[in-house]
Design brief:
Blueprint (H helix, E strand, L loop, with lengths): L2 E4 L4 E4 L9 E6 L10 H19 L3 E6 L6 H10 L3 H18 L15 H13 L3 E4 L2 E4 L39 E6 L15 E3 L2 H12 L3 E7 L3 H16 L4 E7 L2 E3 L2 E2 L10 H6 L4 H9 L7 E3 L1 H23 L8 H19 L4 H21 L4 H18 L11 H16 L3 H13 L2 E6 L2 E6 L1
Parallel strand pairs: 3-4, 3-9, 9-10, 11-13
Antiparallel strand pairs: 1-2, 5-6, 6-7, 7-8, 11-12, 14-15
Helix pairs in contact: 1-12, 2-3, 4-5, 4-6, 5-6, 8-9, 10-11, 10-12, 13-14
The structure holds adenosine monophosphate and zinc ion.
The site of zinc ion has 3 residues, from loops.
């Protein structure tokens, strides 16, 4: 039985989807703010989201996963202005870079990836509802959410705001505050007519606060109530607390049933920051020569609800591990085996696969899940060495490995380098094709060699080739 630690209840609970048929699962994960390249801390959270996504599918559910792109906030507006670009021109390259990184890290793309700026109408609609039912008010250039109107404010973060919250009717001190309560947050900020980043709304031209975008996009694509909402731990308060207040304040229905939060990544025990020089984007690590699969392995090797301490020592270790895993699979695919089947080995394989599932069912315990995989690899390696693995076992074990990897995604397919002799044989075949005027075939050979980084040069002394 799949279990999650639900931040909302503070307990580990059996996962029961909301949907009547029990098979559809709707998941929302807060996405990146696309103002620069995503860093490895962001990717820790997105890889957690990917493992969550893949395991939900592994369990046979029909998944709809939404992840927003935050493409408007104060930072983006300022940076775009400094660069002399529109918001769209400024964010576009970072959106493209984000998807490239996602693909390189083997993170499956969500079914729906909406942009905040394309959902302003939906945000305006929620704000209008909140104004209408007195959960929001206008003051000093903004529309604020009135937290005193939402009885359950604090239920996710378990912060008690009762002492801080003034009565629904009472203002604290209008001379000092432009809001009724210090915790009230902006839903909409009014802007001048000549400000380019602004949208017309019935309550006045402006732009949205940050929190409202996720309420609007989650409810648009997943309905007013859905199954799982996830994100990094720093979003628990205020972002997720405010999402709940806005959504439930407007609909009077439960917003999300399960709330999952991933702990932060630190680097060499410290919080990542540019000033400490320990801030790394995914691209920084690729430039240093590390592989995407090793980075992925490291980022998922610690259960998501535990802090992950990133070090270069562990990253080097991850490089060795993924190489060993990949070599193992190649050996298993290519070994010369005797006929027959070893039922003991198959029984053990089944057991390791069920250990893997048990670990993943337990709130996605990836470190125990990896241990199950390593146990399987060790067992099969010794069977290969002792020649106790037989032809009938190969497919069975490979299938178990593929099942595990459909969730973890840590086996890389190594491109086998072509041997000189293989290249020369293909060149000879191409010459033959040309002599017989089969130019289609000769071009095909040339292209397929080029795809593997081998360039041909036709000289008067014959064909020369080199690796790019
Ligand atoms: P942002 O692009 O800042 O909106 O963040 C995108 C996601 O990355 C959010 O879910 C954050 O909680 C998460 N995140 C940011 N920093 C870290 C970190 N150091 N470790 C893990 N997750 C992080
Ligand atoms: Zn969000």
């Amino acid at each position: 039985m799949l279990k999650f630690h639900n931040t909302l209840s503070g307990k580990t609970e059996d996962f029961q989807p909301l949907n009547d048929n029990g098979n559809d699962v709707r998941l929302y994960i807060c996405g990146p703010t696309v103002w620069s390249f995503a860093h490895i801390g962001n990717f820790r959270t997105f890889i957690f989201g990917d493992v969550l996504r893949r395991y939900i599918k592994y369990k046979g559910y029909n998944l709809t996963h939404v992840m927003n792109l935050t493409d408007v906030d104060d930072r983006i507006i300022n940076e775009a202005r400094k660069a002399g670009k529109t918001i769209d021109e400024f964010v576009q390259p970072f959106i493209e870079a984000f998807w490239q990184d996602v693909d390189a890290l083997g993170i499956e793309r969500p079914e729906i990836a909406p942009r905040a700026t394309e959902h302003i109408a939906e945000m305006i609609d929620i704000i209008a509802r909140l104004l209408e039912n007195d959960h929001a008010y206008e003051s000093e250039g903004s529309i604020y959410y009135r937290i005193s109107a939402f009885e359950d404010y604090g239920k996710l973060s378990k912060i008690n705001f009762k002492g801080n919250v003034s009565g629904a009717s009472g203002r604290v001190d209008t001379d000092k505050y432009d809001k009724e309560n210090a915790q009230d947050f902006a839903l909409w900020k009014f802007v001048d007519e000549d400000e380019p980043t602004g949208w017309d709304a019935p309550f006045g031209r402006g732009r949205p606060g940050w929190h409202i975008e996720c309420s609007a996009m989650a409810m648009k694509y997943l309905g007013e109530s859905f199954d799982i909402h996830a994100g990094g731990i720093d979003l628990k308060f205020p972002h997720h607390e405010n999402e709940i207040a806005q959504s439930e304040g407007a609909t009077e229905k439960m917003f999300a049933k399960y709330w999952l939060h991933s702990e932060h990544l630190k680097v060499e025990g410290e919080t990542m920051s540019k000033s400490l020089g320990n801030y790394f984007t995914f691209r920084d690590l690729i430039e240093k020569g590390y592989s995407a699969t090793a980075i992925r392995y490291l980022l998922l090797s610690v259960p998501y609800h535990k802090q992950l301490n990133f070090t270069f020592e562990t990253l080097n270790g991850a490089e060795n591990t993924i190489e060993r895993l990949s070599d193992f699979r190649t050996r298993l695919r290519e070994a010369n085996l005797s006929a027959g089947a070893n039922s003991v080995l198959q029984g053990k394989t089944r057991k390791y696969l069920s250990d893997f599932e048990e670990a993943m069912d337990d709130n996605l315990n990836t470190s125990v899940a990896l241990a199950a995989l390593h146990n399987l690899v060790r067992e099969v390696n010794s069977a290969l060495a002792n020649e106790t693995i037989l032809t009938g076992d190969r497919e069975f074990i490979l299938e178990a490995v593929e099942k595990i990897d459909s969730v973890l995604g840590i086996f890389s397919e190594k491109q086998k380098e072509m041997l000189d002799a293989e290249i020369e044989q293909l060149i000879e075949e191409r010459q033959e094709a040309r002599r017989s005027r089969n130019f289609a075939r000769s071009d095909e050979i040339r292209d397929s060699l080029a795809a593997q980084g081998i360039v041909l040069e036709d000289t008067k002394d014959g064909v020369r080739w080199k690796r790019k």
